[in-house]
Amino acid sequence: MSNENDNQADNSVEQQDTSAVNAADLQAQIEALKQHNEKLIGEKRQRDEVARQAQLEREQIEREAAKKNGDYEALEKSYQEKLQAREAELSELYKQRDTQSINSESQRLAAQLADNTTNQILLQRFIKDRLTVNDGQVKVTDENGNLSASTIDDLANEFKTSGMYDSLLSGTRASGTNASGNAASATKSANEYTEAERIELAKTNPEQFKRLFT
């Protein structure tokens, strides 16, 4: 009986020792899991912080790029405006040069064809209508204003031989216009005048010429 009781006591102690060991192991496992979880959480926080810093850097780069692009666009716009202003200035200078070239050439040709200042001024008007500038050179146009193959000398010969400008040319006698002729011309409308009559009217009655054609 005594031996049986001793065996039961030993079994009870052994069970208690086993339970204690199991509890300690379980606690150790729990602590290990907690540490592992904390490590994982710490690593995740580090990854999140790295990602956040990367996002901030990317946004900063994008802002700087946008700013640089804006500066470039502003510079490009300023450059284009200056270029357009310069082109407009050059265009005006070319226009003035062309006008001066036509004026000079028509004046030279009028002086060659007519022997007095009044006739030269009148003749120059008609010569200018037949001149243009192409590639920086004074060229002759036809009566419709289209560029022609005629030279300045050809144009001078045309004025000499057409018969329309005889009253203005050197070495020719202007056709006389008496008072009755002036009175008759005053009753005409501008579209009823021939070219020769226009020239004659400009010479003999400048005021009437201005009223009709200017």
Written account of the structure:
The chain is mainly alpha-helical and 214 residues long. The chain has a domain at 101-213. The protein is 75% helix and 4% strand. Strands 1-2 form a two-stranded antiparallel ribbon. A hairpin with a 2-residue loop joins β1 (131-134) and β2 (137-140). The protein starts with a helix and ends with a helix. The model is unreliable at 173-186 (pLDDT under 50).
Quick summary of this structure?
This protein has 214 residues and is mostly helical. The chain has helices at residues 2-113, 117-128, 152-161, 179-186, 195-204, 206-213; strands at 131-134, 137-140. It has a domain at 101-213.
- In N-to-C order, the SSE pattern is HHEEHHHH
Strand content: under 5%
- Measure the end-to-end span: 155 Å
Radius of gyration: 54 Å
Uncertain residue ranges: 173-186
The counted number of beta strands is 2
Query: Average pLDDT across residues?
Result: 76
Order of strands in the sheet with the most strands?
A: 1-2
What labels describe this entry?
214 residues; mainly alpha; two-stranded antiparallel ribbon; 6 helices; rod-shaped
Blueprint (SSEs and pairs):
Layout: H1 2-113, H2 117-128, E1 131-134, E2 137-140, H3 152-161, H4 179-186, H5 195-204, H6 206-213
Antiparallel strand pairs: 1-2
